[in-house]
Design goal:
Layout: E1 3-6, E2 12-18, E3 31-37, E4 43-49, E5 62-63, E6 69-70
Antiparallel strand pairs: 1-2, 2-3, 3-4, 5-6
């Protein structure tokens, strides 16, 4: 991943770029993804998003005190 953040509950969020399949079907080119892991590093979810025929980058992830996640 390109960026890692944690929240107040100890969850870990990873954002990055992939050329393959992680969560959803690849749109071709590069897609961005965000993944959430529990404090003991069990995968909670992964979301992959992109636009057909273009490169979509996930360069940073952060959280706030309300538990929101921003990519």
């Amino acid at each position: 991943g390109n960026s890692i953040a944690t929240d107040a509950n100890g969850n870990v969020f990873v954002a990055g770029t992939t050329n393959g399949l992680l969560g959803n079907a690849s749109t071709g080119g590069s897609d961005f993804f965000v993944a959430k892991y529990s404090g003991n590093l069990g995968l909670q979810f992964v979301q992959q998003l992109g636009a057909t025929g273009s490169t979509t980058l996930g360069s940073a992830v952060t959280t706030n005190v309300s538990g929101n996640v921003y990519v």
